[in-house]
Amino acid sequence: MKTILKEFREFVLRGNVIDMAVGIIVGASFGKIVSSLVNDVLMPPLGLLLGSVDFSNIYINLSGKSYETLSAAKAAGAPTINVGLFLNNIFDFTIVAFALFFTIKQINILRSQKKKDEPTTADSAPTKKQCQYCFFDIPVEAVKCGHCGSEMKI
């Protein structure tokens, strides 16, 4: 039992797990902000442009009875197809997808700039040289070839 708890503690304390947990929490909060943006900021003017339509109240009533609003139909237990709520969720998804796209695009730009700043192996000093007699690769500091025994010119 102690080994399981020890393994679990090591798993939880790894950097990746903690980073993932923070990402999930921030993502959930971001989702709430996006939902508010869609429901409270974008959809009312769009509904006004389309003739005072409240998207959250667009639904198909399957019970055959008439209800004033979606909430009234739900309160009565009527089966409904919630088209307006579905549209709101499509807008939510689209905004989140664009935000992720631009975030990942910026991360990729930063990564490519970082790679440009890193020295390449061609820029670094060579670690081997070739023996002028047997053409065997030897360390740069060598004064004698380890393969043929020839002395290297300095």
Can you put this structure into words, describing what you see?
The mean pLDDT is 82. With 154 residues, the chain is mostly helical. It has 2 domains: 117 residues, Non-ribosomal Peptide Synthetase Peptidyl Carrier Protein, Chain A; 34 residues, no CATH class. Helix content is 57%, strand content 6%. The protein contains 4 helices and 4 strands, in the order H-H-E-H-E-H-E-E. The two termini are 65 Å apart. It is elongated. Helix 2 packs across helix 4.
What's the topology here?
Blueprint (H helix, E strand, L loop, with lengths): L1 H12 L1 H35 L10 E2 L8 H6 L4 E2 L1 H35 L10 E3 L6 E3 L15
Antiparallel strand pairs: 1-2, 3-4
Helix pairs in contact: 2-4
Short description:
With 154 residues, the protein is mainly alpha-helical. It has helices at residues 2-13, 15-49, 70-75, 83-117; strands spanning 60-61, 80-81, 128-130, 137-139. 57% of the residues lie in helices and 6% in strands.
- Contiguous helical run count: 4
Head-to-tail CA distance between termini: 65 Å
Give the percentage of residues in beta strands: 5-15%
- Specify the overall morphology: elongated
Question: What is the architecture of the largest domain at the second tier of CATH?
Answer: Orthogonal Bundle
Q: Using the coordinates shown, work out and report the CATH topology of the largest domain.
A: Non-ribosomal Peptide Synthetase Peptidyl Carrier Protein, Chain A
What is the number of domains?
A: 2
